[in-house]
Please model this.
Amino acid sequence: MEKIHGIETIRRNYTNGENNPNYKRGWWTESGYKVISENGKDIREHRLVIEKILGRKLHPNERVHHLDGDKSNNKPENLMLFPTGSEHIKFEQKINSFAKKLMWGNLDEKLGKRVKKLFDNFKE
Ligand SMILES: [Zn+2]
Model:
């Protein structure tokens, strides 16, 4: 397994987007991130997108979160920057516990049943 910046990678080239003028050759990391080559350096695309918006390099401690949970969706509106990894983790834990509450508890009975039904339908 090859490693880029400590990330295990699979060398699978993108199969789409070649007609896009912004198309860049890249590959996916084992954990689902897109890596592209920028000025001869390999960088995870979601970090590069934020760097371009901020006009500066990201500090290694800074973390980028994908709001919709899809690590391949690197549109700027899907990305959220955290100053440290621990703040990112805190945020994710809050979201996770909120989602669990939403699905399984702390809901009035009627709404709870509707949410459970939606969830059950989704599983099928
Ligand atoms: Zn995250």
